[in-house]
Amino acid sequence: MAAPVRSVLPVVLLGCGGVGRHLLRHILSCRPLHANQGVAIRVLGVADSSSLLVADDLHSNGFDDALLADLCAAKSAGSPLSSLLSRGQCQLFNNPEARRKVIDTASVLGKTTGLVLVDCSATYDTVGMLKDAVDRGCCVVLANKKPLTCAYEDFEKLVSNFRRIRFESTVGAGLPVIASVTRIIASGDPVSRIVGSLSGTLGYVMSELEDGKRFSEVVKTAKSLGYTEPDPRDDLSGMDVARKALILARLLGQRISMENINVESLYPSEFGPDAMSTKDFLESGLVQLDKSIEERVKAASLKGNVLRYVCKIESTGCQVGLEELPKNSALGRCYESAPLVIQGAGAGNDTTAAGVLADILDLQDLFHKTA
Ligand SMILES: NC(=O)C1=CN([C@@H]2O[C@H](COP(=O)(O)OP(=O)(O)OC[C@H]3O[C@@H](n4cnc5c(N)ncnc54)[C@H](OP(=O)(O)O)[C@@H]3O)[C@@H](O)[C@H]2O)C=CC1
Ligand SMILES: N[C@@H](CC=O)C(=O)O
To answer: Which of 71, 65, 73 is nearest to 31 (CA)?
Structure first.
């Protein structure tokens, strides 16, 4: 028998791509588990790049599970959110009204039931909505790294009520990286240095290259597995790792910005987003990088080494780039006698969505059952 409902968490989701849809599916499949724990997640709204589908009555149970399942199927098939309108129980707002509706929803629920605004988009555009939600006393959960890596003042605002924000999935997807660092900081232990291979994509790519596979093929496979950013150049340029480095550095108290991070890109600027589309890069640009990457892998291998894309955060500075490392050296073991080592799947829609779901549930004590 299900436990009495103790906490109800109303959720509005920004972004229903790979991660967002996995989150919705996890919410559905975990219903019995959550019911046993006395927790209920109510999805009141889902937004994509052009619109917001929101429940008619914000104090209702939100979308029913059948509608959520259909929403995932519709977005997977490339249909717009408007295709769900015929189901009733919801309204559609297109941008810019959609953004205003998110903020109105935060205003209403911030004063009543509370709200968790979950950002599974991959854009800077959400930062205004997130800050407004924080101002209205709402909780925020992020898989999207961009809001935490723009202006320092935005970061400061978002983390101003640290009990009401979770962003575990921004670094290491479902792995407990942020939680571990936060706990160490809270216990007064100084963190002198963080060293890691923080890109799931580049970890996968570098391992596959060791087996003699072609760079261009491996990057495309990483994309199809859901490891890469929507534009894989975000990973290959080192920018996605740099964002993780910036989040960790800011967490350690460094008041720094992206310009303070040394970033090594794996492709030259003529292959960048200003020069060609993602499609052209994947179809014709990527293959032109195969030879130079193969030479770097071979040069490392002749010395018994492998390539790893390494992120280093120290009080003296942050850098991210390719390094040659001994094949049998676990990152970290090289640097200290007994470092904290966190190892596992650091990317993938499934594990990221699981991390986001765990973050939402971690907020449950801030929410109580409503009548
Ligand atoms: N995959 C992984 O392993 C990990 C991913 N992440 C992060 O998760 C996030 C999502 O990644 P992923 O799901 O792969 O990305 P996708 O590109 O698959 O999905 C992005 C979603 O965001 C929507 N969107 C775009 N702009 C807005 C906006 N202004 N407001 C609301 N929604 C918007 C898109 O709309 P539309 O459908 O209309 O295009 C789409 O639904 C990224 O920030 C990524 O860095 C973090 C850790 C690991
Ligand atoms: N593209 C990222 C996804 C997680 O942040 C990665 O490869 O690590």
So the answer is: 65
For the Cβ of 168 lying below 6 angstroms from any atom of ligand 2, the answer is no
Report domain extents, the chain: 7-175+351-366, 191-342
pTM of the predicted structure, to 2 decimals = 0.95
| 231 within ligand 2 shell (Cβ under 6 A) | no
Q: Does domain 7-175+351-366 sit in CATH 2.70.70.10?
A: no
Q: What is the pLDDT along the chain (371 residues), one digit of tens a residue?
A: 678 999 999 999 999 999 999 999 999 999 999 999 999 999 999 999 999 999 999 988 999 999 999 999 999 999 999 999 999 889 999 999 999 999 999 999 999 999 999 999 999 999 999 999 999 999 999 999 999 999 999 999 999 999 999 999 999 998 999 999 999 999 998 898 999 999 999 999 999 999 899 999 999 999 999 999 999 999 999 999 999 999 999 999 999 999 999 999 999 999 999 999 999 999 999 999 999 999 999 999 999 999 999 999 999 999 999 999 988 765 534 334 556 778 887 889 999 999 999 999 999 999 987 64
Q: Do domains 7-175+351-366 and 191-342 have the same CATH topology?
A: no
200 lines ligand 2 (CB under 6 A): yes
Name which residue sits closest to atom 3 of ligand 2, judged by CA: 347
Which atom belonging to ligand 2 lies closest to the Cα atom of 227? 7
Q: Which of 75, 244, 298, 312 is catalytic?
A: 244
Residue 12, strand partner residues: 45, 117
- Ligand 1 centroid to Cα of residue 260, in Å, is 26
For this structure, is 244 an active site residue?
A: yes
Minimal-distance CA residue to ligand 2 atom 2: 228
Give CA angle at 43 (344, 51), nearest 5°: 95
Q: Which residues contact 130 (CB under 8 A, 6 or more apart)?
A: 117, 119, 140, 142, 147, 158
CATH number of 191-342: 3.30.360.10
Strands (E), the chain: 7-14, 39-47, 51-55, 90-94, 116-119, 139-142, 165-166, 193-196, 261-263, 305-314, 317-326
